[in-house]
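Fig. S4 source data, part A: sequence.
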Amino acid sequence: MDISLKIKKLLWDSLHIEKFETSIKTQNNSLIMGPIHGILFGGALDGKATMLQETPVPSLEVSATLTGAHVSHLQLKSNGFSLEQGTLNASTHLTAHGPSYLRTLKGVFALQVDEGVVRGFDLNKAVHSLKAADTLGGILGLLDASFSNGQSDFKTLLVKLIFDKGIGRLQDAKLLSNNATILAQGTLELEPARCHITGDIQLHVPNIPSIGFSISGPLENPKTLLDTNRVESYITSQILPALLGGLGRDGKKVADVLTSLVPARSSKKRKKGPQTDEESNPLTHLVQNGLDLLGI
């Protein structure tokens, strides 16, 4: 049996295929689909798929490349993050066998997105806030810089997944931009669909330590956490003393000035119970950390 298949245009939900051509034929105990050619999300699709009707279970092998696709057509969104723009190139070679193809998936999937935009955090805002942290207003700006909204331009996004037994391990995953470098590692499980990813955001500001992050849970709604402890410690131990160091000339000690910036507190002990608006202020929290480090 030999079948030729041509699709001029197919629009199905977010799927956009044009000028799709392939052949399907049977050979011995195998079903071969390919070569495959077409336009997927505005990019050139080429590939081949083979299914073997083996005993005791069938197996599947897929190879494909996608070149020059438009990220804006893919609608890649998850948990408040989305890829909005960019040019995508991807390749894959995967094998699997029944009865559970997802649990037996093995092979490589790699993608690269160039000159893109990701929505969900603003790296430019964070960098400018940190660069201005030689003033009290700059510190407040830093604390206001949020990784929960805004958008960021990037030069390159690289993701490579090595699959074995249905679990993909991130290898060489990074986002490169003018403002930061983001590195990630972790796993992606297909059945059940969940992930556990950790990494570091290194903002391009001299001497500033990296910000840790983790993304874990079900793929449809993973939990994202940021770890800013290293940055807060740096501000408390380096920036605040440098900012207030000159105050000694008028007879005031740095510790006295720090203490004056927070609500009244008994020696080394904070009040228990609900915090007031003043106590929950991020600047207050930062200065309290500094007082703790100073043993005040």
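Fig. S4 source data, part B ends here. Helices lie at 123-131, 136-144, 229-244, 254-260, 282-294.
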